[in-house]
């Protein structure tokens, strides 16, 4: 799967702005300088994983933690508004959702469970309605792909038995797809 030339142009603009040489960036990303130059001049398209490697390398070289959130874990730019939408719909304060750290698995805490449920539903919607892969969600949260798969399967199974949840998911999917 290829990326549009604008993705490489973005990397190139950020590289120039940071004053990093092509050679240094390509060495850090394990990408050939020739392939990089061809992509910049639109003679060749790079694979999505190559673009991701370049973005990560650039973020590491610039030492910009915020950059890592946007480029290394760009999924959060999609997850966050979805989480806000779900938390409002379910009447769960966003502070509760954000406090429910997925790595803690504090299932004995009812507040953690409320926040986790919103996160699970948001992840389900991001995956099913917006097409974000489970592996990308796992990387964004720093958990295993199996953990994300279990979350999504739990929501899918519950959806089959819970008409109220099914309606909620349909309504939120419509909101996301239209937006």
Gross morphology is elongated
User: Sheet bearing the most strands, described?
Assistant: none
The total count of helices amounts to: 11
Helical residues, percent: over 70%
Structural class: mainly alpha
- Low-pLDDT segments: 1-5, 65-72
Provide the β-strand percentage band: under 5%
Intertermini distance: 25 Å
Order of helices and strands, N to C? HHHHHHHHHHH
Evaluate the radius of gyration.
Answer: 19 Å
Structure description:
- The protein is mostly helical and 179 residues long.
- It is built from 11 helices and no strands.
- The chain has helices at 5-18, 22-29, 33-40, 48-62, 65-72, 76-90, 94-99, 110-128, 134-141, 145-161, 163-178.
- The protein is elongated, with a radius of gyration of 19 Å.
- It starts with a helix and ends with a helix.
- Mean pLDDT is 82; it is low at 1-5 and 65-72.
Summarize the structure.
The chain has 179 residues and is an all-alpha fold. The chain is built from eleven helices and no strands.
Topology (SSEs and partners):
Elements: H1 5-18, H2 22-29, H3 33-40, H4 48-62, H5 65-72, H6 76-90, H7 94-99, H8 110-128, H9 134-141, H10 145-161, H11 163-178
Any descriptors?
179 residues; mainly alpha; elongated; disordered N terminus
């Amino acid at each position: 799967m290829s990326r549009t030339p604008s993705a490489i142009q973005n990397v190139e603009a950020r590289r120039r702005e940071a004053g990093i040489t092509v050679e240094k960036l390509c060495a850090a990303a394990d990408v050939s300088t020739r392939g990089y130059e061809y992509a910049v001049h639109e003679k060749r398209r790079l694979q999505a994983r190559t673009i991701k490697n370049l973005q990560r390398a650039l973020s590491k070289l610039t030492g910009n933690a915020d950059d890592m959130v946007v480029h290394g874990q760009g999924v959060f730019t999609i997850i966050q508004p979805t989480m806000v939408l779900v938390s409002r719909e379910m009447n769960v304060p966003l502070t509760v959702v954000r406090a429910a750290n997925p790595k803690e698995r504090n299932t004995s805490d009812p507040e953690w469970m409320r926040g986790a449920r919103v996160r699970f539903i948001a992840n389900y919607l991001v995956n099913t309605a917006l097409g974000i892969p489970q592996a990308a969600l796992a990387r964004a949260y720093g958990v295993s792909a199996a953990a994300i798969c279990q979350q999504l399967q739990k929501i899918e199974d519950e959806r089959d038995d819970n008409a109220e949840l099914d309606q909620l998911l349909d309504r939120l999917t419509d909101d996301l797809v239209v937006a």
